[in-house]
Amino acid sequence: MGPFLRTPPMGRLGPLLVRSITLWGEAAIRTAWSDPDKITVELISGYKKPLQAENWDRALWELVLASHPLGLEGRLDEVSVPALVITGERDRIVPTRNSERLAAELPAAELVVIPDCGHVPHEECPAEFLLAATEFFSRLP
To answer: Which domains does the chain possess?
Structure first.
């Protein structure tokens, strides 16, 4: 698909396509949280703020074009630094089993699964996230 995405017609259509985030973005946020009742008007407003910048759609399209597979999954055993993998127990975007697999494949990883939390534990469960991060970093030399 890469060559097709870089054609002149897609250069004009691509930004139009990424603008559709304004239609489905709020639904994606609600999917990312375990408890949608915690989502405030201010939070939604914060997520929408970047969409007010001039040419945000062009920038997002250029990011799509620049993205490519890095093939890192076969090299995880080469990571020698301690790593902390934090996930929400109710992550509906990246299943918890994927985070468990990542932590198992990283030689020096620790996995923290935060109960009753979704895809963005740093936002939905900040106290639990900070506790896990603080405890992890306090054990490092």
So the answer is: 2-66 (no CATH), 72-138 (3.40.50.11320)
